[in-house]
Amino acid sequence: KFSPEFAAQWKETFRHESGAGYMEMWVARYEEILQQPQVVNYYETFTERIGILLDTMATNSSLRIRCYEKAQSVIATCYDGILFSLFEMEIKQVEERIIALQLSDEEVRQEMERTFNFYRLQEIALLHSEKYAYEQATTTETTEADTLETVLFFYASPENTLEMPLDGERLHYMRYPELSTATHDDVKQAVRKIQHEKEDFRDDFLINFISDKEFWINYLESRYPDIIAEHTHIFMEQMEELEEKKDTIREYEYLIQANTIAEEKKDSEQRLYRQLTKNIVAD
């Protein structure tokens, strides 16, 4: 129904993969959302977005694994939890396409700024929810439910004018907006705050956001293997030299020197990754 390509391979191969059963249940829950009368105006957009995700999963085993894990973590949640997990899976989809070198530099920059918008908005929503829970002295169970609805509200509100991942049609829909502890004005203020942060920090806001992310490191290593290998070669030589004289020095001295080399290598790599990131983002 959603993706002929995915369905054809699901029965034969994917359904036997570890964790695939959770994804199957997640899709079933997602189909339940599509049957809700309130979704009629969003039906085509919902089906299109899940279709794109499943098609990408059909050709990317790493994305399948990450989506299986996400599905397992949210399978018992409410409709809004399932809906929000779709947006999180879509970000994983973008990350995997970046790692696979399928996007141009400009596309990478655009998607990373949208991802920054998503996560920064989520951070502000979580802070809002924590403040509300503290002021109202809510129970843990109530706080968890309120937090989910509040985070989704920040995303779905018409006042969220920030570009979101994949830049698709905006879904201003959630099942239980009345459970959110936020107002549209709260979202408007959050958007304004994020826009000011980006203006103040210019390209640095994006460099700081992505330069140490695991998926981004994987991307840089895939794109610049020779540069990174050449850069780290000196540290590999130092470790080899240290290993050769390991039996001639005290164990304590060996550990101190090995740790020093490892720390210098780590610091050097971080500077290199940041510079490579800057080259992509600032161009």
TrEMBL record:
GO MF, one annotated term: ubiquitin-protein transferase activity
Gene3D superfamilies: Shigella T3SS effector IpaH defines (1.20.58.360)
Entries under Pfam families matching the protein: NEL
Biological processes, Gene Ontology terms: protein ubiquitination
Residues annotated as domain NEL: 1-283
InterPro entries referenced in this protein's UniProt entry, alphabetically: NEL_dom
Identification of the protein by name: NEL domain-containing protein
